[in-house]
Amino acid sequence: MADVRIQVGGYQYDVHCGDGQEDQLLRLAQLVDDKVRAVQGGTEVRQLLYAALFLADEAHEAKGAAAAAQAQAQEIANRPPPPPQVVTQNSPALGRALTQMADRVEAVADYLEANP
């Protein structure tokens, strides 16, 4: 166990944490201190209460946003793949594909010439 001295709301506290967690604890304490300082007036307990409520609200919003993003990612992952593009002998898509392949072959050749 590690001992860390943090400062929140103008007061210092000695806190125990797991080894290697000291920097994270200091960052979290700074976050709480910022919220406490944003609350004007009231007792120390009231300032800490409001700071905790602000942080809980932010965490709740972040969880909602993460859940929405995960649902959207799952929806995209579940979509069927687009149908393959039909390429005929006189198709413009065939011409573009051949041009892209030729460009890639030239780039590889240039690289091999420059790096024997």
What can you tell me about this protein's structure?
The chain is of the alpha+beta class. The chain has three helices and two strands. β1 and β2 form a beta hairpin. α1 packs across α2.
Write the topology of this structure.
Blueprint lengths: L1 E7 L2 E7 L4 H17 L5 H35 L13 H23 L2
Antiparallel strand pairs: 1-2
Helix pairs in contact: 1-2
Features:
116 residues; two-stranded antiparallel sheet; 3 helices; 2 strands; 12% strand
Spatial strand order of the main sheet: 1-2
Task: Report the order of strands and helices.
Answer: EEHHH
**Residue ranges: pLDDT <50 for 5 or more in a row?**
none
Helix-residue proportion: 55-70%
Distance between termini? 57 Å
Calculate the mean pLDDT score and round it: 88
Helix- and strand-based class?
alpha+beta
Question: How many β-strands, per DSSP?
Answer: 2
How would you sum up this structure in a few lines?
The chain has three helices and two strands. It is α+β, with helices and mostly antiparallel strands.
